[in-house]
Amino acid sequence: MSYAECESLESKVNVSDKIPTTISISPQEVNVGVGQEVTFGGLLQCPTGPLAGKRVYLVVEGKEVASAVTDDSGRWSIAYKFEKAGTYKVKAAYKGE
């Protein structure tokens, strides 16, 4: 008995000249009153470790509202005050370099 030849399915490989990064944000969910400040924070890193001295943006409902620079540990912190009642989508963004 012999075996028939075969091929695997194709594998997709994306090659970039940029090092991938990740950014976290907390709190994930919080309840506050109108006019109260929320402090958001997180970590910016790449596969080899944290990224220091990089600008991170706080984005509320698709609009950049504030920014901060990461510390030596890649951590960032931004306080933001919500002036109107509602439910908001908030995220952190790093634009790369």
Walk me through this protein's architecture.
This protein is mainly β. About 0% of the residues lie in helices and about 40% in strands. Strand 2 and strand 3 form a beta hairpin. It starts with about 20 loop residues before the first strand and ends with a strand. The model has no long low-confidence stretch (mean pLDDT about 95).
Our Rg estimate from Cα atoms comes to 20 Å
Describe the global form: elongated
Here the CATH topology equals: Immunoglobulin-like
Q: State the low-pLDDT regions, or none.
A: none
Identify the CATH homologous superfamily: Macroglobulin (MG2) domain
Q: Given the helix and strand composition, which structural class is it?
A: mainly beta
CATH architecture: Sandwich
The number of helical runs is: 0
Number of strands: 7
Beta-strand percent range: 35-45%
Q: State the end-to-end distance.
A: 58 Å
For this structure, what is the CATH class? Mainly Beta
Average per-residue pLDDT, rounded, comes to 93
> Could you describe the largest sheet, including whether it forms a barrel?
4 strands, antiparallel
Domains, number:
1
The arrangement of helices and strands along the chain is: EEEEEEE
Estimate percent helicity: under 10%
